[in-house]
């Protein structure tokens, strides 16, 4: 391959990576958390009250609820107990946005209490989908979609760069004094071995984040052909007041689901269109033997009047046509919604390795542009743009690593104290992000590097410590009985804290005794001697050499 082609692709790869690396780091790191989104939601919830933890037989509950429901309720969800799927609780959201839970009391009357909402899972998902941008999802997601396209371009150009030395350098990881060579080997190793995963994530992310633009364009062009201007929408009638009285009982729908698929485990029944003529029951459930369309669910859609399966809009693993199965496979590749816990753990590892991929890419860019001269005993001043990229990389990435667990702990304490602080998780995350950036910009990447890594280790350790305090001291606001379904959260957080602590010690050693001519070396500028004339000329020569090298890149 011609050197000019490789050089062109290297420029593309470098600048695409620099422009999108930090956002992708945050998205991938938070994406690893989303693999246990439901468990995180339960971890951060307060101990349920006796009424919130109550459940009722599903048939009489559904009959009583729909007989007396508020006509303004457009949908309601019957949440099933895992151990007793014939028992559950009804949930709905009123016009003011408040969530309510309904069960039956001892006399068979409806009993309504405030529902636990579990915002922690939504918090990590929002950070993941927005890439850490402090913007509304409608604004942030299209930006992330365009970043994902750049990400795909970076992947392709990275492969082209590596092709000339692919066989020689594919599985090589040289650990030694040459830091740049180590980071290059690590970057290439992670990038090539996980290339299919990254391509799938890049393309599906672009599709998820940009599909609204695609649909709007289709509506304005393709779908508008042949439609008269100003054509009124088809009027919909209203359901009869007692229409739900003849609906099929939930137990019958559950029996139908078991007959259709023995591997499908229903978890909830969502009743939609309650105040319209086309009511539906969307039964969500898990089937890890196939590709599920949602992160934790496949779907069966029933007609509540006759109990018939609406095959055209059901998304059940192993029961879809070729087109639907292909779409579900694409969704499942992004969500990791197949294969159960082993696949989710693999996605956690791939998400973290993806974050490392973007971090090492920025480190390589920085190392390549450092001014170095081993004959000098005083440090060379590094270019301003190199110092800025180093500060942005360290401050934002490590700020995000601290902010995610701190946001979760804040949500756990908020729930335990019974406070209502909307957006507290994101507020804590953005504060950690801002403080990390401020420290790195004002004090430099070397000063902030190991300190922020240590802060990230402590913040991550707070997750299992909170669980331990909750179990040992049930009288605390966060106290509640320990549940094994959150064990993976505590175990992975404990492991992550240990790794971050080890990294903090390594970064500290480099900051104190590493290479002199580096943005990662912590120096006291006030104690550095003034450069002599000979030193000054050496610096100029070194600067010219570095500039020539940069132009060749």
Automatic annotation (TrEMBL):
Keywords: Membrane, Transmembrane, Transmembrane helix. The keyword Transferase does not apply. It comes from the Bacteria. Residues 532-553 have a biased composition (Polar residues). The keyword Transport does not apply. The chain crosses the membrane at residues 12-36, 143-167, 188-208, 345-365, 386-411, 423-442, 454-474, 486-505. It holds the Pfam family PepSY_TM. Residues 531-553 are annotated as: Disordered. This is PepSY domain-containing protein. It comes from Massilia atriviolacea. The lineage of its organism: Bacteria, Pseudomonadati, Pseudomonadota, Betaproteobacteria, Burkholderiales.
């Amino acid at each position: 391959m011609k050197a000019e082609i490789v050089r062109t692709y290297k420029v593309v790869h470098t600048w695409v990576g620099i422009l999108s690396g930090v956002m992708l780091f945050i998205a991938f790191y938070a994406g690893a958390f989303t693999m246990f989104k439901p468990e995180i939601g339960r971890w951060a919830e307060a101990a349920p009250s006796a009424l919130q933890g109550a459940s009722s037989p599903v048939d009489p509950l559904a009959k009583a609820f729909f007989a007396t429901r508020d006509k303004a309720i457009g949908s309601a969800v019957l949440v099933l107990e895992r151990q007793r799927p014939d028992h559950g609780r009804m949930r709905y959201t009123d016009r003011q946005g408040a969530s309510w839970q309904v069960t039956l009391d001892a006399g068979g009357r409806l009993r309504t209490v405030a529902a636990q909402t579990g915002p922690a899972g939504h918090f990590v998902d929002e950070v993941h989908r927005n890439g850490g941008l402090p913007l509304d999802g409608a604004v942030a997601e299209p930006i992330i979609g365009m970043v994902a396209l750049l990400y795909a371009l970076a992947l392709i150009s990275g492969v082209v760069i590596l092709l000339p030395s692919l066989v020689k350098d594919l599985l090589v990881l040289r650990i030694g004094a040459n830091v740049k060579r180590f980071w290059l080997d690590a970057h290439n190793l992670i990038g090539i071995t996980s290339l299919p995963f990254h391509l799938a994530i890049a393309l599906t992310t672009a599709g998820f984040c940009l599909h609204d633009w695609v649909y709007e364009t289709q509506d304005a062009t393709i779908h508008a052909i042949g439609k008269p201007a100003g054509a009124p929408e088809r009027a919909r009638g209203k359901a009869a007041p007692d229409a739900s009285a003849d609906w099929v009982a939930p137990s019958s729908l559950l029996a139908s689901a078991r007959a259709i698929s023995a591997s499908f485990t229903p978890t909830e029944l969502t009743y939609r269109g309650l105040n319209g003529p086309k009511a539906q029951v969307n039964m969500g459930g898990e089937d890890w033997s196939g590709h599920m369309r949602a992160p934790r669910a496949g779907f069966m859609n029933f007609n509540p009047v006759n109990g018939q399966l609406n095959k055209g809009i059901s998304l059940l693993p192993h029961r879809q046509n070729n087109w639907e199965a292909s779409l579900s496979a694409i969704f499942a590749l992004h969500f990791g919604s197949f294969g159960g816990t082993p696949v989710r753990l693999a996605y956690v590892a791939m998400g973290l390795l993806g974050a490392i991929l973007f971090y090492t890419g920025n480190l390589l860019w920085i190392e390549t542009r450092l001014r170095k001269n081993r004959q000098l005993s005083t440090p060379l001043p590094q270019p301003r743009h190199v110092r800025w990229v180093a500060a942005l990389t360290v401050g934002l990435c490590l700020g995000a690593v601290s902010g995610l667990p701190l946001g979760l702990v804040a949500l756990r304490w908020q729930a335990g104290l019974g406070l209502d602080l909307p957006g507290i998780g994101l507020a804590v995350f953005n504060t950690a992000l801002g403080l990390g950036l401020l420290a790195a910009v004002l004090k430099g990447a070397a000063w902030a590097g190991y300190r922020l890594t240590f802060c990230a280790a402590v913040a991550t350790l707070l997750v299992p410590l909170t669980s331990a305090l909750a179990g040992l001291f049930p009288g605390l606001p966060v106290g509640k009985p320990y549940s094994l379904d959150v064990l993976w959260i505590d175990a992975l957080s404990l492991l992550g804290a240990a790794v971050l602590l080890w990294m903090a010690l390594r970064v500290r050693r480099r900051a104190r005794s590493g290479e002199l001519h580096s943005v990662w070396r912590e120096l006291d500028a006030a104690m550095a001697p003034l450069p002599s004339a000979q030193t000054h000329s050496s610096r100029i020569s070194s600067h010219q050499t570095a500039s020539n090298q940069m132009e060749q890149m």
